[in-house]
Amino acid sequence: MKTQQFVVIGLGRFGSSLALELMDLGYEVLGIDRNEELVNEMSEHLTHAVVADATDEEVLKSLGVRNFDSGIVAIGNDIQTSILAAILLKDLGIPTVVAKAISVLHGRALEKLGVDRVIFPERDMGIRVAHQLVTPNLLDYIELSKEYSIVEMNVPACLNQKSLGDINPRARFGCSIVAIHRDGGVLVAPTAMDQLAEGDIMVIIGAKKNIEQFETILNQ
């Protein structure tokens, strides 16, 4: 089976972190940046890293970018370059194009260009940290939309040895526990008979207001 290939344009803090994580996950990564110093720092860690202008279509073609499965525009400090790079990735026919945005307007422009996913790293991290600060058991928070989210939460002592049927979060709170992380691995789609243990991690999905209600009950 062909290893999925990613091209990451912009090797700053966000781009380099993303590229390294993709490598750790076993994928092939081409890193592109105008900054020779950044490219040199990453060259030993990525499949390929090159100094290039990502707004030059001929350069991208010569690098074989059109053959990659996904393209990530991780440029944050130059909106014009970010938009031009995203346009070229779409024009070259890359199946999935993801781009970092530094403002709402930047994000809207990228969406109108047909970018498959626009991400706001600083905003998203701020939201996650805020939720973690006010909810002691919360480990992670991912916003799916304005109404829905996924959270990872430690199982508190009050739920120790209780089954999902006992808690019945869907009927009582309108949210669902879709997975449980524990030392033995991950239990996906647990049944009503499965029990929680203090130290487990629940993965919960649902409307934000319903999850917040669930969190409030647990913290009482």
Rounded Rg: 21 Å
Main pleated sheet: 6 strands, parallel
As a percent range, the share of strand residues is 25-35%
Quote the distance from N terminus to C terminus. 51 Å
Question: What share of the residues lie within helices?
Answer: 25-40%
Oligomer: single chain
Attribute tags:
single chain; 220 residues; 5-stranded antiparallel beta sheet; 9 helices; elongated
Explain what you see.
The chain is of the alpha/beta class. Helices cover 37% and strands 27% of the residues. The chain has helices spanning 13-24, 36-42, 57-62, 79-91, 104-112, 121-134, 164-167, 169-173, 208-218, and strands at 5-9, 28-33, 48-51, 70-73, 96-100, 117-119, 138-143, 148-154, 175-182, 185-188, 201-207. The strands form two sheets. It has a six-stranded parallel β-sheet with strand order 3-2-1-4-5-6, with helices on both faces. It has a five-stranded antiparallel β-sheet with strand order 7-8-11-9-10. A hairpin with a 4-residue loop joins strand 7 (138-143) and strand 8. The longest helix is centred in the middle third of the chain and has 14 residues, at 121-134. The termini are far apart.
